[in-house]
Structure formats: C-alpha cells, structure tokens
C-alpha cells in the first residue's frame, strides 16, 4: 500500500496526538517540519506541566519545611498491658505485641474491651507538644494490629464501638490541634492488618478465614482513609507505613484519596511507585542528607514506639536537643515519638524531657524554624543552620563544645562580618576575617551547656573556600567513609554509614548499583597508589576507583568476615589534574560482593615531571 513512500513514520507525541510524517508523497516532504514543531510544543507543555507540579508541591510543603519539629504518637490497645502478654515481656516495640506473642484475634480483642484511657486530655496533650516547640502532631489512627483509634464506619473494631472509653480520640485531637495552631497528621497502616482476614501480616491465627487483600483494601482501608480525610478537619500529613506488594488497583485507590485534601502531604511508605513528598528515616540520623529531597527522621523518645513496661531507655534532654539541631543542620525534620500509657497520659520522664526541649526552643527556636541546611563543611565544635537576609546570609552557629581559648573559628567563610551576637542575650561579639575563615571572640562560658547559639550575619552571597579532604605533607589523601556521599537507589537495600569499634564505614553495601563519591583537593599530578581499608566476607569483590577520566579496576580479597578489616593495596592510578576532583568507587556489577569500606587512601608514589 505504501510501496511508493520513501519512509513512513508514526509517532505518538507527549500531548496525545498521532502524527504521520510521509516523505516523498505527491513529490513533496510533507509532515517533517510539523513533526518537529509538534514535538517542541509537547516538550514545552511537558516542561510547563512539570514546573506547575513542582510549584504546587512547594506550596504544600512550605509549612513543613519551616516547622522542622513535630510529635509522633504511637498509641493503641496494647498499652493496657504495656506490651506484655500473660505477664511476659516480648521482643520489639510494644505495638508489635500481637505479632510477637502470636496472639489469636479473639484473644487480642479482649484488650480492646479493657482499653479505657480515662485520664486522656486532648487539650493538655496538644498543649505539651506546643510547649515543646513542636509544630505538628502525627498519631497512629490505625496500626498493624488493625484497631482503629477513631470511630470507624467501616469496622466495629474501633475505640468508640469496642472499648468502654467510647470517645473518638482522633476527633478530640483534631479539635484541639485547630484551636492551638498545631497541624494534625494521621499514621495509617495500609497493608498490614492482623485483624482483618484480607490484611497482611497475620500468619499465626489458624481460625482466620482468608479473603483477598483487595477485599480488605476496598472494604476497610479505603473507607477508613476517606473518613479520616473528610471528617476530621484539615489534615497536614498522611503518614503511610510498611509498604507491601498490593495490586495496582489497591495502590491507586488509596493514593487517589489524598486528593480529598489537596494540601495534604505524604511520606514515602505507600509503595515503591509512590515516593510521596518526603523521605522518612527511622531511628537513625543519616550522616549525609539525601540529595534533592525533603526528609525527616522519626525516632522514639525512649526505646519502644508504643508504651512498654520497663522501657526506661529515655534519651537525655541534651541528646534530644542536639538531635534536633543535627537534623535541622542537614535540612531535615525531627519527628519525635511519645507513647501514652493505658490511662491516656505520658510517663513523667517523657513529659520532663519535652519540657526541657521546650525551654531551649523558647530561647533558640529562631535558629531552627524556617532555616535551611548548613552551607558549611563539618564543624568540629557543633552545627550550623542558615537563612537568607537582605543583602546577606545569616548563620546560626550551634556550639556544642565552647572554645576554651575564647576564639571560635568558622572555617572557609570569606565574607566580611556584618554582625555577630549571642542569640540568648543579644550580646554583640567581635569578629574578623582571617586566612582560615571568620574568627569570633567569645566569652569564657557559653550561655547554654547543651548548645549555645551565635547569630552571625555576613554581607552578600556566602563565599566559601572548599573544605574538602586534601593531600597531606607526606603526599597522602585519606578519604574516610563518613566524608563520602552515598548514591543509593530507591527500593534497594540502602548503603549507610555504620560503625565497628566506633570507626565509621560504608556498610550494608548490598546493592551493586549503589556507589560512593568524595570531593577532594589534589595538589600535584602524579602516580598514586590506591589503598583501601575494608572487610569482605566473600572470596573476593571487584569495583572501579575513578578520578576524572582515569580508572582503576580493583580487586579486594576476603578478610574472613565483615568485622575483620585489613588494609589492601589495589594498584595505582595516574592523576593528571589538580584542584577539586571527584573520586568515585563503583561496584563492577557482575563481579561484586558486599563489603564494608572504612577508607580509600591515595599515596603519591611518583610526581609528574
């Protein structure tokens, strides 16, 4: 049919138009320019659409980025016994009591019949969060045990219908959060439900009459999420948990519900294809902030998320304050968890610590709220947050270790000092620009034993000398694990900075597509020996070490276990560039076995002529 045509092209453009370009038909070149024009229009439309999405997301995320500090609450019927089953302590956090005790549904339901937190006072609870300096509150509306802490219309297994308390806790918190200016968020376990026959996670109750997971999602989870998003006022965050493999229909049914509140933001735990608005780290503060992502750290104030009898592992006020500062200095949010008891109150140690954090925030909150990550390299004496100001930059210097010699150096900053003062008192400080950076003259003692804050204003856009690792006098460049940037892949096991004998290493490096990178200063070209301090359990592993366009295929042999480290020479590499350089370590995919990497050292063995 088209034998007379020189070519026949069919393209489906991004704007959904089917374009047929025919060359040679009727002696002309018909459709080629149209095709290009349509592709250009499609590209512009796609770009404009992407920009529009980014703007809308930024608008939704604005309050969260400014808040920096929130309260997490794990509470459920397990609190009636403090997570103990038949008087026995169980492993894991208390909210896993049903799972770890392998408690049949019929038996676990009896705890709901005992749940009567008569001392719960929503106004006091929200007021304590506010006193601590928290700007939002996220609470478990339904955890994995399937019990709904609100008056669910989809299941009678809820706090209103199945307990003697008969009050809707989520409703009371919603009212108080609105009164006191605290944003409310709901945690919801969308996949695991150990009570519903279609929920995931219950492998022990043989009386469970199984139905499909889709039936659970559509019959319980979807109606409950819809109810939470339509009957409880403005919701700031919907916090999904424990993603599991579900049908596309189930995922879409749940995800689409967030449109009921266009301003709501979500975390990254609905499913692999639903990254949400921000990434959540659990319990551990990452040594490096994830690139180009909003993120938070959720962490219990003690050892367990839910109230657990005998859990006295409360973090000190100084640890909590410094955690908050550390996270804010990297551009993240701190979601600090508390655990109400069976009577609806918090244990005194939790209350005391929240109040202590609140005292610090009452004086120093300006250095946390509405700040950005530190633009500086790692600081030996503390942390830094920042803000843009008219004609300059404001640095909030959080000093953990107050200098004994009365001089605080902010390394690498090249700007002139506009003003420096103590945040707590407003007392002015003298400062000057030196070859090493800005030097401030400070009093003999700091105003706060935990973290004293200095406000430093400098003129203009911040100018910094690179503070990368550099070659030492002996010609060696040490690239330590905790100075590396870790390039992980979403959905894969995440390589992270771990510690053996208090020495950092890149650990859990299971993914052959994950890699690490350092930025460093090279002072002289030449030939460098590449030496790694590492541990390998397998017979061997292979990876590339590259600097610019120079690459070394390296082989490391077994050290006899992940906890046994050796120093291994990997070969040599010629470096022909000076100044700032990127050094990369990437697995060779088909010859890679996991390893722990403490450091890579480049030792100059021959200088270039």
Overall pLDDT metric = 90
Into which percent range does the helicity of residues fall?
10-25%
Distance between the termini: 70 Å
Structural class: alpha+beta
The unreliable regions are 1-30
What does this structure look like?
- By secondary structure, the protein is α+β, with helices and mostly antiparallel strands.
- 21% of the residues lie in helices and 31% in strands.
- Strands 8-7-6-5-4-11-10-9 form an eight-stranded parallel β-sheet, sandwiched between helices.
- Helix 4 packs across helix 5 and helix 6 runs parallel beside helix 7.
- The longest helix has 36 residues.
- The N and C termini lie far apart (70 Å).
- 38% of the residues are buried.
What is the element layout, followed by pairings?
Layout: E1 7-12, E2 18-23, E3 29-30, H1 32-67, E4 69-73, H2 97-100, H3 105-114, H4 122-131, E5 136-142, H5 169-180, E6 183-189, H6 213-230, E7 237-241, H7 248-256, E8 265-266, E9 279-282, E10 295-300, H8 317-329, E11 333-338, H9 348-364, E12 382-389, E13 392-399, E14 407-411, E15 417-422, E16 430-434, E17 437-441, E18 452-459, E19 476-480, E20 485-487, E21 496-500, E22 503-507, E23 515-522, E24 526-536, E25 540-547, E26 550-557, E27 566-575, E28 579-587, E29 595-607
Parallel strand pairs: 4-5, 4-11, 5-6, 6-7, 7-8, 9-10, 10-11
Antiparallel strand pairs: 1-2, 2-3, 12-13, 13-18, 14-17, 15-18, 16-17, 19-29, 20-23, 21-22, 23-28, 24-27, 24-29, 25-26, 25-28
